Amino acid sequence: MKIKALIFSLVCLICASSVINGAEPGRKIFLGIDVLKQENFRLLKGKRVGLLTHPAGVDRRGVSTIDILRRSAKVNLVALFGPEHGIYGNEKANEPIEDRVDKRTGLPVYSLYGKYRKPTKKMLRGLDVMVIDLQDLGVRSYTYISAMRLTMEACFENKVEVVVLDRPNPLGGRKVDGPLMEAGWKSYVGAYRVPYLYGLTIGELAIMAKGVPGWLEVSKPALEKAKLTVVPMKGWNRSMLWTDTGLRWVPTSPAIPDLSAALGYSMTGLGAQLGGFRHGYGTQFPFRLLTFPGKSPQEIATALRSKNIPGLDYKIVYSGKGRGVYLVVDDWSRLHPTEISFHMMQLACQWRGTNPFSSATNSKARLFNKHVGSTEWWDALTHDGARVDVQKHLRKWRTQSQVFRAMSRKFWLYR
After folding, report:
1. What integer pLDDT is reported at residue 11 of this predicted model?
2. What contacts 382, CB < 8 A, 6 or more positions away?
3. CATH fold of 259-390, please?
4. What's the pTM?
5. I need a labelling partner for 70 at 20 to 30 A (CA). Which of 46, 142, 304, 353 fits?
6. What is the rounded CA–CA span in Å between residue 92 and residue 50?
């Protein structure tokens, strides 16, 4: 059975690449780090450099940005900064990380997921420029963009220049979807007032964060003097998903080993926060395999099919830990990725004896709302979740997404 499951997983990934993405092997994409190197590190010459990065911070050939900067005679790399999971990606989620000296490079590594999440004045002392090279997922709750925001704030406050090396949004630059986060839910899993899928590269998001009043908590004089440079990619356009780039996927965190999980995170990350659904974390199908206590895979698949979600199909598979419903993306262009999460929440209310949202502890309710970002949805869900009008909320969020997409256009680097 395990062999069959593995074969099914590989088939799903191959189908996803061809059906969803229309991948073109050999396409030449040059990442921000590649362009920086092509320009002979002009932006960094004569400066003391800090680098915020992780294992997915690599060039188009898979060489670490840490090694590229260290090996260049034109770059004086003096400190490393690590986000959640650390610079080598081997730290557990939600686990604090200590500062240390990196045994491989001999450089100090300052943790931005430990005692401090925002670089301190002491950490930045002596730096002229902070280079940020992080691969994000294009999803609001993934914490690397939060690390970028706090780092930008600290650098601007301390007169340190910021250079962002741009990377693809794995979900492309066209898809904007999900609730627009309300200001009251701003947190480390919601650092910007954007829809859950925001349709920007990390470089475009940095430009927008600096350009929209109130997005960064920096004094007006400091922000006016702040210097932000984004090194754009070459060869990327907004229609591309990751497999269109021809680039090899490097796991961005232990739970996102491949593009399948990255797509799944955008679909089920909200729906399994609270209520009872599980989304395959710890199996070979992370964020793609749905189970629910007391419900058979057939019952789950039947209930989801009745929701008529465009772009999705459902397959019952064995994961090694039991059977579940695998989410098959058969038409990415028609799919609103977050839609399934809100149907999952409604089903949880129908299938539980009591409303799992209204009976949640304060801490769990608050964490849920930090991710979803909509008080209106929470009020409706806790009032009568079994009969909540999901489509009404989806329509509102899609209108908000269209407005956000139009507003964000002036910050685009790619057309």
Report:
1. 41
2. 355, 357, 358
3. Aspartate Aminotransferase, domain 1 (3.90.1150)
4. 0.92
5. 142
6. 24
